[in-house]
Inverse folding.
């Protein structure tokens, strides 16, 4: 291996593989050490140094210099070649890993090339990445040669390869799309403070402007909604609510629950919970379909949010006060203080910090342990009762459905045969209630 050949090899690998020259030099040195160890023995202390400027090789074993002719000869040439190839592949893998590791959380664009089951393989320039089913937006489908965008979720080394995993369900994708579509965000004038997302269904994005002259919400929506429309289209029609951020929870919580109108927000500091009071006609809107609106608002604010009307709150306060006062060791004054701090169920009381309860009631550690144990017992009983009620309701609904199906079949048979259709069953009986008793954490 001549000096000029070494320099030529190093330069070619550096340019073709984008690997630092120093890494290539070290790989060749390691390869020569491995090759010479076959001759001198594995226990020999072999040192090989390649001059980075002229490519000359010098070396020693056990402190004795090795002749240049021996180093430049064909001793261990095949072994050296194999080791060099292996080291270069490792260096190439490490370079690719480091390159994409720096892009974790960033958005990339690629072309779908093939599928393995539900997992899509996406080409990112010269590298391939995968988009697993678990990281795809529910309901989306992709086709070969289709260009898609996603964020780099994970990068890890697998043998001699680098596995790059993409995602389209992480909040970072929404943030990167906003940065791309809204110049004020890219410039830093508008800042995204929080994102809560349920992929494919709905996201809430909280924004704030550092310039009072710029309306952060209006800038994100764009003229006639053109800016937000592009983001929604990229996410397959996912609904996006843009919320004005505030450090004051009394302002942020109502903003996060839009489009519902909020009457009052009661913050329970000890529980990290916000009780939000709304009118009866706003209740379903505040909660959202299957609880989605309040769930996303809770994620956005970082607080548990419970929606109720004033009447429901008054009822819970009355039940909680009476229930807590019935526990040995809890007097009326302590029960009222607990309710005032937002503890409205036995479940709430069972997770109170013992030190807080000791301070509030002037109680001993033994008394606090007994109160918490009793609250846990009552919460478990309440949960069991609620679960039993739900089971009975499901059974009742199943029977009602079976009865309705049977009546429909009889009616259809009667029409076919020309007979008079039977009267609906239960005509003389009141209809069964459709509301199942839900667990409220063991409300007293």
């Amino acid at each position: 291996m001549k000096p000029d050949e070494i320099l030529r090899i190093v330069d070619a690998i550096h340019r073709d593989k984008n690997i630092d020259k120093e890494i290539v030099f070290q790989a060749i040195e390691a390869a020569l050490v491995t090759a010479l160890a076959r001759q001198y023995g594995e226990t020999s202390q072999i040192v090989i140094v390649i001059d980075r400027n002229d490519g000359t090789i010098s070396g020693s074993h056990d402190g004795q210099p090795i002749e240049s002719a021996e180093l430049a000869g064909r001793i261990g040439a095949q072994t050296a070649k194999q080791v060099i190839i292996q080291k270069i592949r490792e260096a190439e893998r490490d370079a690719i890993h480091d390159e994409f590791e720096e892009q974790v959380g960033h958005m990339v664009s690629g072309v779908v090339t093939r599928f393995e089951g539900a997992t899509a393989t996406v080409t990112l320039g010269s590298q391939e990445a995968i988009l697993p089913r678990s990281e795809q937006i529910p309901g989306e489908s992709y086709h070969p040669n289709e260009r898609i965008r996603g964020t780099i979720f994970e990068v890890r080394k697998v043998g001699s390869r680098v596995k790059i995993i993409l995602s389209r369900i992480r909040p970072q994708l929404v943030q990167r799309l906003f940065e791309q579509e809204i110049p004020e965000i890219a410039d830093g004038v508008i800042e995204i403070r929080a994102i809560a997302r349920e992929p494919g269904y709905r996201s809430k994005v909280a924004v704030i402007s550092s310039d009072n002259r710029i309306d952060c919400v209006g800038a994100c929506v764009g003229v006639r909604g053109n800016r937000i429309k592009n983001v929604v289209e990229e996410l397959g029609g996912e609904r996006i609510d843009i919320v004005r951020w505030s450090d004051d929870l009394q302002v942020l919580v109502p903003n996060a629950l839009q489009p519902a109108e909020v009457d009052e927000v009661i913050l329970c500091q000890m529980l990290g919970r916000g009780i939000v009071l709304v009118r009866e006609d706003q209740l379903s809107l505040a909660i959202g379909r299957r609880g989605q609106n309040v769930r996303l608002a809770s994620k956005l604010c970082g607080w548990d949010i419970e929606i109720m009307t004033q009447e429901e709150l008054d009822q819970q306060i009355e039940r909680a006060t009476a229930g807590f006062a019935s526990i040995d060791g809890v007097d009326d004054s302590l029960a009222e203080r607990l309710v005032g701090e937002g503890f409205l169920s036995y479940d709430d009381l069972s997770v109170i910090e013992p030190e807080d309860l000791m301070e509030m009631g002037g109680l001993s550690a033994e008394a606090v342990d007994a109160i918490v144990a009793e609250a846990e017992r009552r919460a478990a009983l309440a949960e069991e009762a609620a679960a039993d009620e739900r089971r009975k309701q499901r059974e009742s609904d199943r029977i009602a459905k079976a009865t309705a199906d049977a009546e429909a079949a009889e009616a259809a048979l009667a029409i076919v045969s020309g007979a008079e259709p039977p009267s609906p069953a239960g005509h003389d009986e009141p209809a069964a209630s459709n509301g199942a008793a839900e667990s409220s954490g063991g409300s007293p």
